[in-house]
């Protein structure tokens, strides 16, 4: 099986996980979630590269950079930019790297302004509402879909 490289992107305020509104986002820190992703990645044959920024332009730059880094897929929790950022949508479409949109909370059971995502229709899949487990489900799903794609393209 081909080994994969997956970039995990976290948007604004996710650096505060652990202390930020634990009723919505749980008690795990971003460092703990990253550790779990790396451990699951090891088991699945996936290299995990993680990046968090509070700045839209930095996230756009990181997505553009991914195009020249042999990144096979992206898992992104765009946080508040989910609901506002045409720039992130355009960057993901421009690189054409398959991506999964992730949310810790179920955005559809919260305020109405969180129901709309500017990225979701372009995503391979969306996972929301499972806390930190949303990221692990996204990793399993994306790894499987990329492995299947590579098998159907190369027969390996
Ligand atoms: C979030 C949901 C967003 O609406 C919010 O702005 C976030 C986190 C989530 O993971 O549940 O910052 O993306």
Summarize the structure.
The protein has 156 residues and is α/β, with parallel strands linked by helices.
E-strand count: 5
| Overall domain count | 1
The distinct bound ligands, ions and cofactors come out as: 1,3,4-trihydroxy-5-OXO-cyclohexanecarboxylic acid
Radius of gyration: 15 Å
Count of DSSP H/I helices: 5
Topology as H/E string? EHHEHEHEEH
CATH homologous superfamily assignment: Dehydroquinase, class II
The CATH topology is Rossmann fold
Whole-number average pLDDT?
96
Distance between the terminal alpha carbons, to the nearest Å?
7 Å
- Main sheet properties: 5 strands, parallel
Side-by-side strand order of the widest sheet = 2-1-3-4-5
Share of helical residues: 25-40%
Task: Name the shape in a single word.
Answer: globular
Structural class: alpha/beta
Structure description:
The protein is α/β, with parallel strands linked by helices. The chain has a single domain (4-154), classed as Dehydroquinase, class II (Rossmann fold), CATH 3.40.50.9100. The chain contains five helices and five strands, in the order E-H-H-E-H-E-H-E-E-H. It has a five-stranded parallel β-sheet with strand order 2-1-3-4-5, with helices on both faces. The structure holds 1,3,4-trihydroxy-5-OXO-cyclohexanecarboxylic acid (DQA). 1,3,4-trihydroxy-5-OXO-cyclohexanecarboxylic acid (DQA) binds at residues 13, 77, 79-80, 82, 103-105, 107, 114.
């Amino acid at each position: 099986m081909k080994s994969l490289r997956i970039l995990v992107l976290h948007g604004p305020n996710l650096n505060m996980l652990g202390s930020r509104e634990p009723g919505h986002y749980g008690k795990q820190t971003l460092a703990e979630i990253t550790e779990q992703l790396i451990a699951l990645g090891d088991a699945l044959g996936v290299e995990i590269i993680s990046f968090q920024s509070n700045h839209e332009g930095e996230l756009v730059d990181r997505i553009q950079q991914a195009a020249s880094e042999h990144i096979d897929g992206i898992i992104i929790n765009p946080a508040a930019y989910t609901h506002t950022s045409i720039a992130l949508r355009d960057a993901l479409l421009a690189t054409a790297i398959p991506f999964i949109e992730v949310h810790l909370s179920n955005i559809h059971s919260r305020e109405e302004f969180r129901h709309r995502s500017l990225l979701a229709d372009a995503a391979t899949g969306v996972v929301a509402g499972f806390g930190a487990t949303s990221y692990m489900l996204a990793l399993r799903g994306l790894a499987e879909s990329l492995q299947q794609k590579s098998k159907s393209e190369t027969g390996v």
